[in-house]
Amino acid sequence: MSPLEAAARDWLALDPDPETRAEIEALLADHDGKGLAERFGGRLEFGTAGLRGPLGAGPLRMNRVVVQQTTAGLARHLLARGGAPTAVVGYDGRRNSRVFAEDAAAVLAGAGIAATLLPRALPTPVLAFAVRDLAADAGVMITASHNPAPDNGYKLYLGGADAGSQLVPPADGEVLAQIEAVVADAAPLPRAGYAVADEGVLDRYVAATAAIPSASPAGDLPWVYTPMHGVGLETARRVLVAAGLPAPVVVPEQAEPDGSFPTAPFPNPEEPGTLDLATALATASGAALVLANDPDADRLAVAVPRDDGWHRLTGNQVGLLLGWRIASTAGPVGGTLACSIVSTPGLARIAEHFGFLAVETLTGFKWISRAPGLLFGFEEALGYLVDPDVVRDKDGISALVAVLAAAIELRRGGRTLLDLLGDVEAAIGRFDSDQVSVRVDDLAEIAAMTARLRSAPPSSIGGLAVLAADDLASGDGGLPATDALRYSLERGARVIVRPSGTEPKLKVYLDVHSDAATPEARAAETAEALDALRAGVGPLLGR
After folding, report:
1. Catalytic residue chosen out of the listed positions 2, 97, 145, 343
2. What is the pTM of this model?
3. What tens digit of pLDDT does each residue of 334-344 get?
């Protein structure tokens, strides 16, 4: 018997799921070494957003055993800290999310932790809010956010000083060590009964989110909303009513939770085509705005009409709009505007313009949410934190309220979000960005590409000279070490190369800037620079 076959048979003794047991038994019966290696050749690792992976059997897939062992490790970590720890568990509408959440709550309770399960499938921001609202020591959210339908995931939040933020070092390493100890024990995990939260948690989230400053401007605006087959609609509707904001026309094909995502196999609002149903409905209904949440409603996409059709604003553009709005209305309170290293440098210009601090963090809201004195934080992947006193994570519902309120206020003066973006550009210059992603079948390809860049740094990219190169894996740039390379180029351009923390691909982030005298000249300069950088990505990566 091979080591992989032995590992699979040991797993069978732990697996309570008939579907994944049958999967393993079929692999063993077929002596499928490749299939066994894909499932038992390692273990899912915590990435930018916790655990994520395809559903299936074995430690390299998301399944009930992985969820139970991960939760048991979390329980040991909490108990080692002393006291009488508590935890809250939430879940989205994906396949197996509810059963995974029930497993997590039962294992926590079985370890002696007072566990509370949210009452039904709800947005991730509600879970992040609940950790603070219930003064819990930990929170678990079962979600794979915007990943494809076959995936699921496990996000972990801790309480304490940064309650409601995702865990960071050294806590992540401590939890991982406890998970490894649980796996090594290979013992049955006790389970016990847990509490189910009442509606109070959601009621308080709705009230707090509806109270965002300037959330209820007088006026109306026709708009379209899609929750992208996810769990955002119920909560968004309640917040809109409480805030006195107009109700949307909802995309009917995508209104209800459906983990198979029939109209959006890759339900990421950044992906081409995912907003087609929404923009078609907007055109038919005469709407002036399209807003979309991803399936767990922690991200927001914004589309606006132009002369040439509907145009989705980039995450950086929305981040600049919200950053400008919040900074311009914050008054002399002091504070910080924060974004990830791969987001536009334009936010720092806004902070400088209004006299606030600017902070760049590593990718992920577990870092952004910890910026001292935070007023607003965002990352280019459609994530926004507009009310840090309520939720310490990206929140697509509160961002929706902020964008909708801004659009209504602008409409009263005969203006649009694009007009406001023009105001921002006039004040800080034009910042444009793009991203090139290289998806791989073998993660070793990513390691080979980054190793080649480290051994032979480029002197230019797309014809633009490299002025400075930071290897962030070595701690360059004053940040904790991370697997990323940052190149500062002439003409204010920047290129960052980093592996995705949630998907098997290498991401290349392109940022350009122009302070030319006219809008037309600024647009021409940034377009030319972006074209040059796009053309330079292939040679940069040796592809």
Report:
1. 145
2. 0.94
3. 899 999 999 99
